[in-house]
């Protein structure tokens, strides 16, 4: 399948775009970015140098993915969500000289397969979002999120478990949960670990 890049998008020549991917109006794809197959990059989104996305990812309008972010397959990034990369942000050094790229160490956000980041959520690097986790809109993630966790708030904390369908799971007793959409069953190993049966 052909790659679709709108004329107003800014895509660096060194970026790798997977088959079937679409880059919409005013999106910026920096150097050494790698997009998997069938990715959709929305209007005004920013993908920083060397960021990697797996197959079938969706990055919605005006989302900002700063390097060195790493996304697995099937990751959803909501509108205006931000993945940061600087633990101690400053424009200048202690002597008030302007910082350059060599004056700080970038750290990234890692998002595993199937996870979703809601609109205007902020993930403060370095954090890892587990597979199939769901970060609620407007949340501020300051620590790692377990697989299948639904986190919300500022700072984000786990409020429920979700299944692969993204729907909150129903507690059926004995540390087991059921997805009301597809009837799949999950087992809670600990307060921070859920596995599919």
Written description of the protein model:
The chain has one domain (4-88, 101-163): Hexapeptide repeat proteins (UDP N-Acetylglucosamine Acyltransferase, domain 1, 3 Solenoid), CATH 2.160.10. Helices cover 0% and strands 35% of the residues. The chain contains no helices and 26 strands. The strands form 4 sheets. A 9-stranded mixed sheet has the order 1-4-7-10-13-16-19-21-22, with no helix packed on it. A hairpin with a 6-residue loop joins strand 24 (176-178) and strand 25 (185-190). The termini are far apart. 40% of the residues are buried.
- Mean pLDDT figure: 96
Oligomer: single chain
Please state how the strands of the largest beta sheet are arranged side by side.
1-4-7-10-13-16-19-21-22
Instruction: Provide the helix percentage.
Output: under 10%
In whole angstroms, the N-to-C terminal distance is 36 Å
Q: Helix count? A: 0
Total separate domains: 1
Shape: globular
The profile of the biggest β sheet is: 9 strands, mixed
CATH first level: Mainly Beta
Q: What value does the Rg take, in angstroms?
A: 18 Å
Strand content: 25-35%
């Amino acid at each position: 399948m052909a790659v679709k890049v709108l004329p107003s998008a800014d895509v660096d020549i060194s970026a790798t775009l997977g088959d079937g991917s679409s880059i919409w109006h005013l999106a910026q794809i920096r150097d050494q970015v790698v997009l998997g197959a069938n990715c959709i990059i929305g209007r005004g989104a920013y993908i920083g140098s060397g960021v990697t996305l797996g197959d079938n990812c969706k990055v919605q309008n005006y989302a900002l993915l700063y390097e060195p972010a790493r996304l697995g397959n099937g990751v959803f990034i909501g509108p205006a969500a931000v993945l940061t990369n600087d633990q101690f942000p400053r424009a200048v050094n202690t002597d008030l000289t302007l910082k350059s790229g060599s004056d700080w160490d970038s750290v990234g956000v890692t998002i595993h397969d199937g996870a979703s980041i809601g609109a205007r959520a902020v993930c403060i690097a370095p954090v890892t979002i587990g597979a199939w986790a769901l970060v609620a809109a407007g949340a501020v993630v300051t620590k790692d999120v377990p697989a299948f966790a639904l986190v919300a708030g500022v700072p984000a904390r786990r409020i429920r478990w979700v299944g692969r369908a993204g729907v909150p799971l129903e507690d059926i007793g004995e540390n087991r949960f059921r997805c009301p959409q597809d009837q799949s069953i999950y087992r809670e190993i600990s307060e921070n670990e859920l596995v599919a049966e």
